[in-house]
Amino acid sequence: MDTRLSPDDLAALISRCTGVPVTGEQVTDPSRTFDDLGVDSLGVMGVLSELQRNHGVPKDADLRPHQSPRELLALLPGRV
Amino acid sequence: MSPAAVVTGLGVVAPSGLGVGEFWPAVRDGHLALAPIGRIDPNPYPVTVAGEVAAFAPDGWVDPRITVQTDRFTHFALAAADLALEDAALEPAAVGPFEFGVMTASYSGGVEFGQREIERLWRNGPEHVGPYQSIAWFYAACSGQVSIGNGLRGPSGVLVADEAGGLDALAAAGGELRRGARAMLVGGAEAPFCPYAMCCQLGLGLLSTSRDPATAYQPFTGQAGGFAPAEGGAMLVVEDADAARSRGAAVKAVVAGHGATYTGRRQFDQSAQGLLRAATDALAEAGLTPDGVDAVFLDAMADPSADAAEAEAVRLLLGERASRVPVTAPKAGYGRCYAAAAVLDVAAAVLALEHGLVPPTPGVRDCLFDLDLVTGAARPADLRTVLVLSRGVYGGNSALVLRHPESPITGGN
Amino acid sequence: MTRRVAVTGLGVVAPGGIGTKTFWELITSGRTTTRPITLFDPEGFRSRIAAECDFDPVHEGLTTAEITRMDRYVQFAAVAADEAWRQAQVAVADPWRLGVCMGSAVGGTTLLEQDYVATSRRGRQWLVDADAASPFLHCALSPATLAAEVADRVGARGPVRTVSTGCTAGLDAVGHGARLIEDGKADVVVAGASESPISPITVACFDAIRATSARNDDPAHAARPFDRDRDGFVLGEGAAVLVLEELGHARRRGAEVLARVEGFATRSNAHHMTGLTTEGVEMAEAAGRALDHAGVAPDEVGYINAHGSGTRQNDRHETAAFHRLLGERAHHVPVSSIKSMIGHSLGAIGSIELAACALALVHGVVPPTANLDTPDPECDLDYVPHTARERPLDVVLSVGSGFGGFQSAVVLTKAGRP
């Protein structure tokens, strides 16, 4: 199981799961929420499930559209 | 049905073409759009010829955010809705907030998306099912996405009555117009070409197993050996006549009457009476008698007993005129698109009224029945009233009467 | 001349028992039927609870051929239709004037999934083996077969259709069925809905969006509409069928009229496939239009059967809609959700709720909302917690909300009302 994801990897994963084009820069911007990016609640759940399945994010983690991808990045193991 | 329902826009996504600009010339000229199935490759199944919308990809038609959360059948519906609105020159925001609704018919739903998610569940476990399964597979996906995509907050519905449901959806939309809606997007879409959907359809025992696209779907002939299935769809803008007039819309046809009956699952011999009754009811609602019918668009199941029953229904309806009134089945050229089949027929019939031409039944030469089946080339005709017949594998028989917009308005209730 | 619609027969298959009498006793007792899933092994799923029907098709009188041919949801519908048809005792002289309008959201999903497992070798083979499929698999692809099976049981030859607007299908099927009578297309319509969605794929798809309750250690208290401690809906299954009859037709033959279906309307929120707005505008609009259609003022509504699925978003959306519809009077109209007792059976529940509404009119009793211990502070209406309430009723409103943004409303009135 690959648990290491760069911001660019995360951006690509979000794009793949949600159809929304997202850049690595956008996912590290703390002021940009999923809502701002145009990712809705279902999209956020899809991204979270993908990270839980394949990237070691804990099963009980929660995430909402008003949160930012940067907060998601912090949930990934091996990152601060 | 109220005489007040008028067709003002057609959106077609068919094997014969995208948009009426491609669809009508192909239908008019009897173009054959059947081909070996490309979406199931390799194809181990006995059915190998179908009508695919091979040129269609969602890019450019569907927002990428929506593409990932929808099945191909919804992509067709969204594209057809865009085309219909454009054809009607109708901006949804110009209609009152609760006065524009959606009505679709579906037979197989988002089955390709569903197959993929069930596969993930059984191969990898429940947590591998994605969040979009809950909104992509079900039959209501198209009505929901078309409503959301176009900001339509009026009445919505979804019918899954077999193939006849396409006409029933138009009748249900007419019911909404009578109850206060001003416009409805109405139609259907199907995308039944993934292995599992094919596996389900094979059980019908009604699909053609011919490997030659030129002879695979030959209704009303001695070679009739089942239909070629198709994917695609059509959406129509149907408006209240006063609403259409007040915005200066070009009216393409009047939806004048509808009838629907049921004659039992797989009892095609019974469908002659069922189609007759449905057609008689539809004509009565339009304030017409069978004498007024100028052309008939046929269901054309290409099953010997079903074809015989349909020919019998036409003969009983039209009496001695049966051998003189032009009848046709353009779908022989592009396949039978389940719940969307009759909607495509309605689109073709509206175009026939508009152009004064009855399109041919492609690939068919020797009609077994004493009907004036139009073959070869389109036939010019002064069309005022066209009857569309549709029938489902689970016993539904429906009929719709369309009239030229310059015909005197009669009937109604 | 306006054609009005009477209800002259009812049939119910619901968790907690088969038959209208058992159903009414259950939902007025406040007992819940939610329990651990037994229809398959739910190990590994997030939500492992449901409201299941203890249904034995042999005991209910279905033949071996019917049991072989019909998926579980069709069997439910057959049994419910038989009960309703027996009660109505209607002889329709002209079968072309007898119609059927049935609803289902996910139809033959259970059989589709079972056969997929068989034909794909548990998901390992994309090119499924068609020879391993059941001969009835084609019936599962499209719930058009649901209405056809019911039509065959009652001998219908008029309009026969299935409605599949997701979770509002049960209301919409009855609404569209009533319109067939209003519009003169039929004199009698057998209308209702059925669903048997408790299968791995359906449970997994609601798991994926966390829509269902994960209160697996306390299933009896898991369905908690309007309660502060709710955590989603509990999946259910079942069917209900109503015999609808043109009022004059029913009167001429001296039939007992249980209730009248007087109003129906739908609206879409055009907002989100699963999300609801906080304002409830479209639901209020659908309800208002249905009341208009019935010729009833909002002031006359004596009970609202809520969608009440038990998701936070729904409960607030709906509460806002009722405020918008009824204004100040909203606080004085009892509102309840029987989903608290029998779960949410998707496309079927709307018809089951209409059966409950018809019975509420007949008995003058409002069924309660079970498990409502601590109301959500944002849900400030009278939700009839725990205990049924006697109340003479003339006009009842039932609403539903479904994926796709659909909002539906049906108005039933008491038989003797002018």
Explain this structure.
Chain B: One of its GO terms (molecular function) is 3-oxoacyl-[acyl-carrier-protein] synthase activity. Chain B: It comes from Lentzea fradiae. Chain B: InterPro entries: Beta-ketoacyl_synthase (IPR000794), Ketoacyl_synth_C (IPR014031), Ketoacyl_synth_N (IPR014030), PKS_Beta-ketoAc_synthase_dom (IPR020841), Thiolase-like (IPR016039). The complex is a heterotrimer of chains A (about 80), B (about 425) and C (about 425). Chain A has five helices and no strands. Chain A has helices spanning about 5-20, 25-30, 35, 40-55, 70-75. Chain A has one domain (about 5-75). In chain A, helix 1 packs across helix 4 (about 40-55). Helices cover about 50% and strands about 0% of the residues of chain A. Chain B is of the alpha/beta class and about 425 residues long. Chain B folds into two domains: about 5-245, Thiolase/Chalcone synthase (Peroxisomal Thiolase, Chain A, domain 1), CATH 3.40.47.10; about 255-405, Thiolase/Chalcone synthase (Peroxisomal Thiolase, Chain A, domain 1, 3-Layer(aba) Sandwich), CATH 3.40.47. In chain B, the strands form three sheets. In chain B, strands 1, 2, 5, 6, 7, 8, 9, 10, 11, 13, 15 and 16 form a twelve-stranded mixed beta sheet that branches. In chain B, strand 15 (about 385-390) and strand 16 form a beta hairpin. Chain B is globular and about 65 Å long. Helix content of chain C is about 35%, strand content about 20%. Chain C has 13 helices and 15 strands. In chain C, strands 1, 2, 5, 6, 7, 8, 9, 10, 11, 14 and 15 form an eleven-stranded mixed beta sheet that branches. In chain C, strands 3-4 form a two-stranded antiparallel sheet. In chain C, a hairpin with a 3-residue loop joins strand 14 and strand 15. The chains are: A mainly alpha (about 80), B alpha/beta (about 425), C alpha/beta (about 425). Chains in contact: A-B, A-C, B-C. At the B-C interface, helix 4, helix 5, helix 6, strand 6 and helix 7 of B face helix 4, helix 5, helix 6, strand 6 and helix 7 of C.
